[in-house]
């Protein structure tokens, strides 16, 4: 998501009649993030010739940031991870922290990877999760793990167990299943930021400072403009002193640009976007901590939990187990299993 920037102050003067207009406070602009930039003829991936790896179809840092700014999106990813991992009986080969990291990466970024740890005889004795945020693939199918400084670490394809969500456009990286809800996630965040800025601005959306008094000369206009600019910040415009000797009673007027209280869609936006995120994740509202409005209810949460476990958690857990156990280098004594209650 692009960072916002403020426009510079604009000032216009009509020399014929002395009319002066200036703006202050700036306007925030942001370039929208195209959630579907992975849908094109090339599948959204490009090959970085300089670094020698394929660039993922979706900006992974953006996906991570979005999970931390939306009150539904991020927590649902954690819940899906917890519910799936709870169905897996571990072996000495894989620690729970690495299993949870694998599933989290898979759900958030669309793919996850485990690095094989070998003994002196080249036998696999452990599996360690690698963050999908920094994992890349080259043309030979090998993996590069980016470092904050220095050259990336390179791992052979045989040293990595790679799990990805299927994407019809390309099979190099996975694409998360919730991308249809990204715009709603950003709208939810934008609505919250707008409301915060509204209150920080003094609980108003701006106004027109209209002056018609002929006694307001150029020097006083400049002083008034500077005073307004300096008043930016929390609780600004709470008071403003203007002294015009021999001025007219109606020489200065403040005209509000808009009043958020007259038509506030904040609650509607938050409600609709929250529902969109539940739909995108196929997650029951009764398990997401959402309070039903009015006389509505979400039914029995235990039944919702049982249904979700059957349709989502167990299939995901089974996919993880089959992937790891299906690797020819994983010994049978290290195979994972579904917990007894999940069978």
TrEMBL record:
Family of this protein: Belongs to the phage portal family. PBSX subfamily.
Protein name: Phage portal protein
Native organism: Photobacterium angustum
């Amino acid at each position: 998501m692009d960072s916002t920037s403020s426009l510079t102050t604009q000032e216009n003067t009509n020399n014929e009649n002395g009319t002066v207009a200036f703006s202050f406070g700036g306007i925030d602009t942001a370039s929208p993030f195209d959630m579907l930039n992975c849908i094109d003829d090339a599948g959204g991936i490009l090959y970085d010739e300089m670094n020698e790896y394929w660039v993922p179809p979706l900006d992974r840092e953006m996906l991570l940031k979005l999970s931390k700014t939306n009150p539904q999106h991020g927590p649902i990813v954690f819940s899906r991870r917890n519910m799936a991992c709870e169905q897996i009986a571990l072996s000495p080969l894989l620690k729970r922290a690495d299993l949870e990291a694998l599933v989290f990466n898979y759900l958030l970024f669309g793919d996850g990877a485990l690095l094989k740890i070998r003994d002196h005889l080249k036998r696999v004795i452990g599996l360690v999760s690698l963050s999908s945020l920094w994992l890349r693939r080259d043309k030979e199918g090998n993996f590069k793990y980016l470092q904050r400084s220095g050259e990336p670490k390179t791992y052979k394809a045989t040293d990595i167990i790679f799990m990805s969500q299927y994407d019809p456009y390309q099979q190099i990286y996975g694409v998360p299943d919730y991308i249809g809800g990204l715009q709603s996630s950003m709208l939810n965040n934008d609505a919250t930021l707008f409301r915060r800025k509204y209150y920080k601005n003094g609980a108003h959306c701006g106004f027109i400072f209209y002056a018609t008094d002929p006694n307001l000369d150029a020097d006083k206009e400049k002083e008034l403009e500077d005073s307004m600019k300096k008043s930016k910040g929390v609780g600004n415009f709470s008071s403003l002193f203007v002294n015009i000797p021999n001025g007219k009673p109606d020489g200065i007027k403040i005209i509000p640009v808009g009043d958020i209280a007259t038509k506030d869609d904040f609650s509607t936006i938050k409600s609709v976007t929250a529902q969109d995120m539940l739909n995108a994740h196929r997650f029951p509202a009764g398990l997401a901590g959402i309070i039903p409005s009015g006389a509505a209810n979400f039914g029995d949460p235990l039944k919702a939990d049982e249904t979700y476990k059957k349709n989502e958690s167990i299939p995901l857990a089974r996919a993880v187990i089959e992937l790891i156990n299906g690797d020819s280098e994983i010994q049978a004594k290290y195979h994972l299993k579904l917990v007894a209650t999940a069978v």
